[in-house]
Amino acid sequence: MAAYGARVRRLREERGWTQEELATRTGYSSKHISAVEIGSRPSTLKFSGALDGAFGLTGTDQSFGRECQQLRRGVLMEGFPEYVHQERKAVEIRLFEIGVVSGLLQTPEYARALAEGAVARGAITAEQAVERVDFLVERQQVLERERPPMLFVVMDESCIRQLVGGPEVMDAQLDRLVAFAARPYTVLQMAPFALGERRSLSRPVNILTLPDRSVLSYAESQAQGHLERESGAVSYLVTTYHQLAAESLSQADSVAMIKEIRKGML
Q1: DSSP letters along 66-104, please?
Q2: pLDDT tens digits, residue range 34-56?
Q3: What does pTM read for this prediction?
Q4: From CA 158, how far away is CA 257, in angstroms rounded?
């Protein structure tokens, strides 16, 4: 609710509209608009459709109607839709992952295995698992644009050691990582177990640089995601990320590690 409301407010302010003006354009009261923006009133499909009409988002992948459906179905973690919206605009993306391969680099089979694991635990339904994978594949299209963002990825060694989906799925996933490292707009580094206490980050982190050079960070707890815009906190994460990258293997050595682990899985 908070992330949804923050996005409504941001789009409204970008257009120079008051809450009263948005209320007029949607057919809702300014009190309703205010309650949604501060996160005290949940979104509905009807209201989301009105917002899409006002903001010109009807039928787009950024529509509020689509976001509302995904949140209501439990497909996405709270706070994540707002992050994805910013990710689509980013000119640089920096990722650090522990335990599993970063989403933007996952094969559909690897992503499906993770989703099916969540189904087996009772965390989501089979239908939600399909929607998660579909959403991830669509999200990865950001890397196929004519001018894709520069993507820097540091992954803990556990990401490629942990067997997900069986040997064949993992073999294809590691092969995709090798191909990813060869792309012109990407940098892939492994943070080996040997780093020990020199590994400066202990949880996954996403850092976005937007076209105006502003920087956002995103991190998740067990229950929700949080998009951080406050410069002090973001600057600290950027510094910590670069410290980790400096301690990690070079891209060439990282690819060599991936190939070596892949041979052991065949």
Answers
A1: HHHHHHHHT-S-TTHHHHHHHHTT-SEEEEEESSS--GG
A2: 989 888 777 777 899 999 999 99
A3: 0.72
A4: 12
Q: Tokens representing 252?
A: 């060439």
The superfamily CATH assigns to domain 1-74 is: lambda repressor-like DNA-binding domains (1.10.260.40)
If one compares 233 and 261, the residue with the highest pLDDT of the two is 261
Distance CA 57, CA 50 (A): 10
d(CA 3, CA 227): 8
C-beta separation of 164 from 99 below 8 A: no
**Is residue 218 within 8 Å of 226, Cβ to Cβ?**
yes
Q: Indicate the DSSP class of residue 173.
A: H
Beta strands in 111-265 (DSSP E): 150-156, 186-191, 205-209, 215-220, 225-228
Name 179's Cβ contacts closer than 8 Å, sequence gap at least 6.
Answer: none
What are 100-134's pLDDT values in tens digits?
Answer: 999 999 999 999 999 999 899 988 888 888 888 98
Rounded to whole angstroms, the Cα distance separating 4 from 86 reads: 13
Q: In what order do the strands lie in the sheet with 215-220?
A: 186-191, 150-156, 92-97, 205-209, 215-220, 225-228
C-beta neighbour count of 67 within 10 angstroms: 25
**What CATH number belongs to 86-104+142-266?**
3.30.870
- Residue boundaries of the structural domains of the chain: 1-74, 86-104+142-266
